[in-house]
C-alpha cells in the first residue's frame, strides 16, 4: 500500500481530502508512517481557514488543557510543576555514531530514534492528533521555511497559531519542492490537571539528518512548540551550510532624528531582556526572540521568524511595560501559562499591584506560604510563567517590517547578557570581527529560570545561543566571521549590559535606561555622535548621554552615575579574556585562528591602559578631561 492509500484508510474523508490536495509524496510518506505509529483515535488536519484554527482553540478548552478566564479570548494553561522550563539534559541532537561535539548534547542517531519511537508507539491512543502547517519567516520570501507539526496537544497547536504564519497554502503552492521541517510531539499521559505525567520519560530529540524533531512527555512551550526552539536547531544548521544567520535575536526599529528608521537585532540569553528591549514603548517591535539575517545584494536583511510573542510575564508592570500591560488587559486572544488565577483573573509576580493570597497556580491549589515537596516556598506564579499573543495586537508593532518579504536592513546588532561586574552598559565594537569575537563569541551570562537547573551561575553562552547550537561552535563562528564578506556594509556591532550591580548587589541601572542606550546606538550607526575610544571599543561621552537621558527619560543623569557605570574594569575584563580564551583553546577545538588574535589584541590594549591609568579607568580620563 502506498502512502496516500494508507492515509485514505487512516483519515476520515474530509481530513483526507485536505492532505490529498497537497502534492508532496514526501509529506504523505511522513504522515502515513507517523499517524500509523502514534495510533490516535482521531486526526484533524488544519488548513489556513479561520474555522480550522477555531476548532483547535475550542479543543484546547474541550480537552481541558486550557481554561477560560473572565476576559473574553483569554485562557490559562498549566504545565506540570516540574515541567516549567527547557529541559537541557533530555534534549539531544541525534548524530550518526553519537559523535561527541564540545558543548552540544549529542546521542547516537539510531539509538535515539529507536528510543523515541518506542516511547511514541501508540502514545496517542484515545487522543486526537492535530496536523498543522506553518511557515518560518514571511511567506513566499527568501526567508520562508515550511514546517509540518503533529501534536496531540491542542494547547501546542493553539500556541503555534498565535505565534506562526499559517502554511497550508504555502505547502500547496510549493508542492513537491517544499523543503520542510517536521515536528512530532506528544504530551504523553496526563494527570488530573491535564499536565504531562511521565516526566522521567521526557525526551526532546533533534534529528539533524532528516530535519525532524521529536518531543514527548512534556508540554512546556520551549520543549514542545515545534517552530520555536526546536526548529531553531534546524535553522542554525541550514544557515551555517548556506551562509546566512539564524539567531536568538529580537528585531526592532529605533526611531532616529527626523523620522529616520534604523533596525537593530539583539541577542541576549533567555530572560535577559530581549522582549523588554524590543518593547520599549517609544520604539517599534518587529520580533522578540528569533531572527533570520540573510545577505541580499550585499545588504544584511533581517526578518522575524515568528509573528507572535511567547513572553515572560514576571515583572510586567504598568510603569515599565505600559504596552504589554495594556495588551494583557484587553480582550485579544492570549494564553497565560503558569500564572496565579483567582476568580477568573490572572496574577503574576512583581506585577506592581496587590495580588490575592490564594488561588490556583502551577502547583495546583495555592495559598501564600505553600511549600513544594523540596520545602521551597512557592511564589504566586512561576518565574518562567509566560503569555502568548500575536504581534498584530501590539500598537507599537512595525507591521510593514514584519510582513515585508524582503525583510529590513539591519543597521546594528547587539549582544548582551547578565553580567554583574565586567561590561559597561553599552559600547560599540571597532569593527565586525572585533564585535563578533569580543562581544558575541565571548558572551557570558548568569543562568536563569528559563532552563531547569541552578540559577545565577556565570556561564559561557556565545551569541546567547549555546542551548540551541546544533553545529560545532568553530563552524558557526567561521560562518559569522565570513558573513561580513558578503556585505557591502556590515551592520555595526554593539554590546550592552543591563545587569551591572554595586558592592551591595543593587542594580546600577533602571530598566528603562536601555531606551537611552538604543538612541545612542542609533546615532552611532549613522555617525551622528562622537565616542570615547577605550581598550574594549567605543563608549558614549557623558555629555551625549546626559542630553539623551533628559530627552528620552526626562531624567537627570549625573557624572557620578556615568563614571560608575562606564568605568573600564581592567582586572575583570582581563579575567574574562582568560576564561574565554581557555574555553576556546581547550574545550571547543577547531576555532578560527583569528578569534585568538582578536582576543590577544584586546588583552594588549587592556594591559597598556592599565600601565597608564591603573586597574579601574574612569571614562573621563580616557576622554582626556
Ligand atoms: N535589572 C534588570 N532586569 C531586567 C532588565 N530588562 C529586563 N529585565 C528582566 O529580565 C527578565 C525578562 O527578560 P525578557 O526581556 O522577557 O527576556 P527574553 O530575552 O525575551 O527571554 P526569552 O523569551 O526567554 O528568550 C525579567 O525578569 C525582567 O525583569 C533591566 O534593564 N534591568
Ligand atoms: O523557548 C523557550 O522556552 C522560551 C524562550 O524564548 C527561551 O527560553 O529562550
Ligand atoms: Mn528565547
UniProtKB/TrEMBL annotation:
Top-level taxon: Archaea
Keyword list, A-Z: Cytoplasm, Decarboxylase, Gluconeogenesis, GTP-binding, Kinase, Lyase, Manganese, Metal-binding, Nucleotide-binding, Pyruvate, Transferase
Cofactor note: Binds 1 Mn(2+) ion per subunit.
Compartment(s) of residence: Cytoplasm
Reaction(s) this enzyme catalyzes, per UniProt: oxaloacetate + GTP = phosphoenolpyruvate + GDP + CO2
The family this protein is said to belong to: Belongs to the phosphoenolpyruvate carboxykinase [GTP] family.
The protein's name: Phosphoenolpyruvate carboxykinase [GTP]
Organism annotation: Thermococcus celericrescens
Gene name tied to this protein: pckG
Amino acid at each position: 500500500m502506498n502512502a496516500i492509500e494508507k492515509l485514505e484508510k487512516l483519515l476520515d474523508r474530509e481530513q483526507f481530502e485536505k492532505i490529498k490536495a497537497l502534492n508532496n509524496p514526501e509529506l504523505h510518506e511522513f504522515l502515513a508512517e507517523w499517524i500509523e505509529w502514534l495510533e490516535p483515535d482521531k486526526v484533524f488536519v488544519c488548513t489556513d481557514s479561520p474555522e480550522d484554527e477555531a476548532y483547535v482553540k475550542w479543543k484546547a478548552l474541550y480537552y481541558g488543557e486550557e481554561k477560560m478566564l473572565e476576559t473574553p479570548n483569554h485562557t490559562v494553561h498549566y504545565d506540570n510543576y516540574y515541567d516549567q522550563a527547557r529541559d537541557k539534559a533530555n534534549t539531544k541532537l541525534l548524530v550518526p555514531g553519537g559523535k561527541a561535539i564540545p558543548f552540544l548534547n549529542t546521542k547516537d542517531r539510531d539509538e535515539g530514534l529507536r528510543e523515541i519511537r518506542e516511547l511514541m508507539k501508540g502514545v496517542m491512543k484515545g487522543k486526537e492528533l492535530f496536523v498543522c502547517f506553518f511557515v518560518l519567516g514571511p511567506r513566499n520570501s527568501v526567508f520562508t521555511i515550511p514546517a509540518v507539526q503533529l501534536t496531540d496537544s491542542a494547547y501546542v497547536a493553539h500556541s503555534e497559531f498565535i505565534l506562526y504564519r499559517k502554511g497550508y497554502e504555502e505547502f500547496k503552492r510549493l508542492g513537491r519542492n517544499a523543503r520542510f521541517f517536521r515536528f512530532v510531539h506528544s504530551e504523553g499521559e496526563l494527570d488530573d490537571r491535564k499536565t504531562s505525567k511521565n516526566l522521567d520519560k521526557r525526551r526532546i530529540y533533534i534529528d539533524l539528518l532528516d530535519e525532524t524533531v521529536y518531543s514527548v512527555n512534556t508540554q512546556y512551550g520551549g520543549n514542545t512548540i515545534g517552530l520555536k526552539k526546536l526548529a531553531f536547531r534546524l535553522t542554525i544548521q541550514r544557515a551555517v551550510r548556506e551562509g546566512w544567520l539564524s539567531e536568538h535575536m529580537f528585531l526592532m526599529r529605533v526611531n532616529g532624528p527626523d523620522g529616520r528608521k534604523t533596525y537593530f537585532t539583539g541577542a541576549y540569553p533567555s530572560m535577559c531582556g530581549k522582549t523588554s528591549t524590543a518593547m520599549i514603548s517609544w520604539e517599534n517591535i518587529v520580533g522578540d526572540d528569533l531572527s533570520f539575517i540573510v545577505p541580499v545584494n550585499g545588504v544584511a536583511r533581517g526578518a522575524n521568524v515568528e509573528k507572535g510573542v511567547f513572553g515572560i510575564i514576571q515583572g510586567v508592570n504598568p510603569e515599565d511595560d505600559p504596552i504589554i500591560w495594556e495588551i494583557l488587559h484587553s480582550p485579544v486572544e492570549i494564553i497565560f501559562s503558569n500564572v496565579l488565577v483567582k476568580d477568573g483573573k490572572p496574577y503574576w509576580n512583581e506585577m506592581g499591584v496587590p495580588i490575592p493570597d490564594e488561588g490556583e497556580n502551577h502547583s495546583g491549589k495555592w495559598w501564600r506560604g505553600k511549600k513544594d515537596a523540596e520545602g521551597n516556598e512557592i511564589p504566586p506564579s512561576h518565574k518562567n510563567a509566560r503569555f502568548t499573543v500575536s504581534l498584530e495586537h501590539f500598537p507599537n508593532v512595525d507591521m510593514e517590517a514584519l510582513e515585508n518579504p524582503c525583510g529590513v536592513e539591519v543597521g546594528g546588532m547587539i549582544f548582551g547578557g547578565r553580567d554583574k561586574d565586567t561590561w559597561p552598559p553599552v559600547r560599540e565594537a571597532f569593527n565586525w570581527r572585533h564585535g563578533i569575537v569580543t562581544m558575541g563569541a565571548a558572551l557570558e551570562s548568569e543562568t536563569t529560570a528559563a532552563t531547569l537547573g541552578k540559577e545565577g551561575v556565570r556561564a559561557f553562552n556565545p551569541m546567547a545561543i549555546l542551548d540551541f547550537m546544533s553545529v560545532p561552535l568553530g563552524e558557526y563562528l567561521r560562518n559569522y566571521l565570513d558573513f561580513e564578506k558578503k556585505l557591502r556594509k556590515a551592520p555595526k556591532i554593539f554590546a550592552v549590559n543591563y545587569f551591572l550591580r554595586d558592592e551591595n548587589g543593587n542594580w546600577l541601572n533602571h530598566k528603562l535606561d536601555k531606551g537611552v542606550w538604543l538612541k545612542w546606538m542609533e546615532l552611532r550607526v549613522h555617525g551622528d555622535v562622537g565616542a570615547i575610544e577605550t581598550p574594549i571599543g567605543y563608549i558614549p561621552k557623558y555629555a551625549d548621554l546626559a542630553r539623551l537621558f533628559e530627552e528620552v527619560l526626562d531624567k537627570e543623569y549625573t557624572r557620578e552615575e556615568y563614571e560608575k557605570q562606564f568605568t573600564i574594569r581592567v582586572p575583570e575584563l582581563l579575567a574574562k579574556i582568560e576564561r574565554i580564551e581557555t574555553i576556546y583553546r581547550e574545550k571547543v577545538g577547531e576555532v578560527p585562528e583569528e578569534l585568538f588574535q582578536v582576543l590577544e589584541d584586546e588583552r594588549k590594549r587592556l594591559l597598556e591602559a592599565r600601565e597608564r591609568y591603573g586597574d579601574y579607568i574612569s571614562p573621563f580620563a580616557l576622554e582626556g578631561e
